[in-house]
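Model it.
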Amino acid sequence: MFRLKTIHSEKLIAPLVKVLIGVLGVQLIIAALNLVFPPDMSRAMTASAVALDRNGAWLRALPVDDGRWRIRADLQRTDPTFLRHVIRVEDERFYWHPGVDATSVVRALLSNLHAGNIVSGGSTITMQTARLLSPHPRSYGNKLVEALRAVQLEMRYSKSDILAMYLTLAPYGGNLEGVRAASLSYFGHEPQSLTLGEQALLISLPQAPEARRPDRHPKTAMSARNLILQRMATANIIGTAQAREAASEPMVTSRFVFPTLAWHTAGRLARSARGLQATVVTTIDANLQTRLEAMAAATAKQQGPNSSVAIIVVDIKTRGVRASVGGGGLDRPGGWVDMSRALRSPGSALKPFIYGFAFEDGVVAPDTRLMDAPTRFGDYQPEDFDRVFHGEVSVKEALINSLNVPAVAVLNRIGPEAFQGRLEAVGVKLVVPKSGLKESGLALALGGEGIHLNDLAALYAALGDHGLARPLAYTVGEEQTSGGQRLMRPEAADRVISILRETPPPEGRLPGPLMKNANRPAFKTGTSYGYRDALAVGVAGGYAVLVWTGRPDGGARADQTGREAAAPLLFDVFDQLQAPSQVPQAIDPAGAPRGLKMLGTPESKASILFPPNNATVYVEVRDDKAALTVTRPLKLSARGLRPVEWYVNGQPLKLDANGEYSWSPPTEGFFDLSVIDAAGHEDRSHVRVKAIKGDIR
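Modeled.
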């Protein structure tokens, strides 16, 4: 008996092995065909990505090449009740079949034979997805192709991926594809939360998207929606009362316009989405962005027809960009250009970093005395913006008043190459203008080299973070609260911030110490040659803010300085941020070490710096009469123990309204000037005055 069972088992083994080999062979053939003839996924890979703000609010999406809104479905941001209802209505065994539901196919075939034509397709969601990937006329032959492609999709993708593809490609009328585009266009909101009536309409539309378009055929759309509700009630998916209530919801009859906030930045980030990625969650705050875009548009309009505006707001803690305004409006010249990342001249906006590096290197201290007087550095001779020299000043005064000669003198001490190298070490590269020069040298202190505006914002964020530099973050995933590279030591950065907080506010603002409930920014302005760029960059309340105004084409403007054209808007932005008030802090230590009392030279006796001995001084006058009416008084400058007294031809000179010595020569000719310091030391200067007709405006 045992021997008979063994013989019988041995006879069964051979056929079973053959069957297993056959099954394995079929699987290998299917796998080979799947590799040789893969499904065309181009439509799924070519879709409109969406950029959202940090809280999930819509910023912008990009249409595909043919102008269709094919917005990637995001199952994590889609009403889960709607997803369950789609599956129950369209393909109740979706999670169990391998792409083809044999039961549905047999049922559809019997229905079609009984009716004499095709009344039911028996298509699963996977088969419908296959047809949407490669559209073709409906026929039994093409249905077989759909089935084979459906099996391929199931072999390659998860059920969630397939459902997301279906809800991305499904047509919803007109140029709308995908449930997100339909929900936003018809209901004005994302499909995160849908009413039962909205769900039923979205389920019905893909079957006849043009005939059921609610904005063109609202009655047909309502009938189709109510039919879906009736089917759901009959199948006990929803209750009868629920169906009746949903059927009473009013039908939409028009389409909403898609939001387009942060046009430049959101568009750039949306274009970075890859493959089936549905959403890019940015660091932008949509509410703040909306307010700042309106302010930028108003400012651009006020400053002239060719002017534009850029604003960047950075959360210093995370480096997240909370607002990024790239222009003054798409309807303005150059409005399509993203000026928030443009390469522009910083003007004087890099001066704080020159002094910060000098503090760190021990070259100067905040109250080191510098000379603001005509000075030649090799073949380069800078002059102050207002063409008036201020004589002996402290580093603090030089930075607050943005004096050019002292900044160039300090840069000369630390070296322009070293300055650039320290910026490049934290990822910020200055760009030499297209003038044939290999380098700008000392001129970079005054904006002689270009910088990308987002890099400038990152530098000020580092200044506000005690000298720690990190790249700006435009997506939530990029934000970080640790790490980074050291731009300068904390004490040096904090000294610069303390000085900048004492910069006088723009006209119309209360003096700094009186701003109890307003922002107290530590800020710096910059104006490039020809008034092409007006900049204001500041730090306050945990934010770094950059404001730029100018022409996108780089054209010159008339008298648009950073202080006048950009600083007021900077303060308005800080008001929008509601940053806490910060009173100016005292600089510690208050006194410079003895070796840093004067930059470059030790203390000496009284000596006249301007006008130097035997110099010819030109003054601008209003007319050519013998008695001169000088338009810009000469600012006299001398070195010596303070206070000093000035004399012209032996007559004492009085202090002007600013407490400084300025001189308006009464006539052309020769004059003897002398200065006496507090120690009684005296120096003399013999000068000739010549008048030139000024350009009076």
